[in-house]
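Archive transcription. Copying these from loose printouts into the bound notebook so they stop getting lost. Printout 1 of 2:
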Amino acid sequence: MSDVTPDGGAELDELPSKELYDRAMSLAKERRDVGFLWDLLRAIPAAAAAIGEVDRAEFDLFHGLSLLEEFTHAGEGELADALRPLYIEYLAAHAKGT
């Protein structure tokens, strides 16, 4: 299994958003978890709105290709920060031993 849980007992909340994204994506790929990827795609417009990019969020709802582009950057910047709860929830739910 890939290293998807924090090292040294660190809490998920303490990890940078990019690290949470990388770990969640690694775990989803390992598990072939299309459901998580779909959840992420559905969460991106709300995350964009939460960081004040309402026009971008509305555009994404109606333009799937734009949403797929956002998906490729879901581990970067403010968007990654807004998606932290999704990453933490996924990693915690599928941590080793659960």
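Printout 2 of 2:
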Amino acid sequence: MITRRSALSVALATTGVGLTGAGLAPLVAAHPTAGTRAATPPAAPAAGEKFRRPMPLLPVKRPLGTAGRSDVYEMTIKPARAEILPGIQTDVLTYDGHFPGPVIKARTGRPVVIRQRNRLTVPTAVHLHGAAVRPDSDGDPMDVIAPGADRVYHYPNRQPNAPLWFHDHAHHLEAENTYRGLSGSYLLTDATERALPLPAGRYDVVIALRDARFDDQGRLAYAMGDRARNTLLANGVPYPYFEVAARKYRLRLLNASNQRRFELRLADGGPLVQIGSDGGLLAAPHTTDHIPLSAGERADVVVDFSRYPAGTSVVLKNTTGPGPAEETGEVLRFDVVRTADDPSRIPARLRTLPPLPRPDAEREVVLRMDEGGEHPGAYIDEKVYDPERVDAFVKFGTSEIWTVTNANARAEHNFHLHLVQFRVLERDGRPPQPGESGLKDTVFLAPGETVRLQAVFDSYRGHYVYHCHMFEHGARGMMATMHIR
């Protein structure tokens, strides 16, 4: 195992990057064929005509076997090539060669053990986003897997149902590594969820959304804080179509972008029934015409395609920037191609959320980054991340209210707490919207906005980080450490 201190020498040797400063040296040596790092994007080949390629289903990872009560997996982190743009093989970083990564299906009360084999030339750290795990399996930014090494992660799965996901978290490398493909899905189910008559099987679909930019040779182009990422991908394909039956589908939406925020709507304004968020099912379904998703957030949504005759189509649109609407205003197209029986339904009640206990303590957290300059700094409470510093001491078994503020005038942020799922109490003094009324682990903050949230720290002791989940902001230093003791 590589400790926080020894990770420094590994990363310096492989990339030349200092691990505690806000400035970043280029990582070209780490990805010698991965593409340009120019801030000004060159002309890129076309993504092809929209809605001409099918959206693939993400592969489901199967366990190698069992050890006691645990399902045992092995996964290889390795470079590969993927046909993202039509007819062009693009270098990517992958879990098991898949872009994006596979889906692991787990059950509450049944642990999962995964041996991760790092076959890259850079360190990695695998973070199961939204999971309550011991510190040594959390994917701490400094607790990395060296190139060529293996690491075993233990996931106890003691929490309720939740659409978790996993991604790279090696500090200063997480933004580029995840951008180049290191992300996957982890669906945790429990008896409460399985008892509900929701769409299931082939009608329960994971859709990983993200943006990208390509250089003039069709390579993934990476630049820190790049706002010119102008191609939207769904399950690794630009602007695909997805054939559906005229019945209800459960769509597990994941925003795997580095920093892009989506505002998703059906082109005809049709209803979207949100049944869950980051931490699993809501207490009750929420019917809306739009689903907002900042980087790292998830939404569990049911769409009833029986309202469309077979032979018709409806586009899933994105109505927020950056980028022109002709490039970033459409995501994918649903093509209704057949009729089908539909025994599924959406119950009026989905689950009982745990009651909020009386808080034992309160604290304030301020997110801010420099708005200008070539290498803007990013801070929590005016401090750049230092892995040797503890920023918050939390008493084990207590409940705390955190008041989180985005102090920027223009920059958006969001906030992710490791280890715990929290409840949003207020947004700028107002009650949360229905879609964020359940359990959450990531929450969006517009410029100048304040969110109050409450979490219970009763699962594990140790060091865990909290940070902006816009990867470039965290990589620049918008991250801090809490010690639960």
